Target: Diacylglycerol kinase
Amino acid sequence: MTDPTPHEKPPVNLQKSRTGLNRMVHALGYSFEGLRAGWKETAFRQEVMAAIVLLPLAFWLGRDWVQVALLAGSVVLLMIVELLNTGIETAIDRIGPEWHDLSKRAKDMGSAAVLLALLLCVGIWAAALWHRFGG
Model:
């Protein structure tokens, strides 16, 4: 990268100037950093531990690829929503620790999204278990 001319400013975020494979490699590194940061959250660790059991179980319980995809996908979706909720909470906390109605609303909506993802996951697994063993 050449030195900027007096009229050019260097990019604030170096990732924005990367292209091709170099950008993809760095983006993958940022993704792993995000997973490491998520691991520091108790709820995410609990969901990962559940996924270690549930993902292989999805292949045993599911009778076809659609059932396996629903079972496994609901578990992964829950972890995705948990990471997004943690990102919202972290961004709000970055702004400041003082109470604000909009901050509370953002955190509450993130929490509600996790609840809905959890209910979806539990519902899919309960239906699959009922279909396999109860009906």
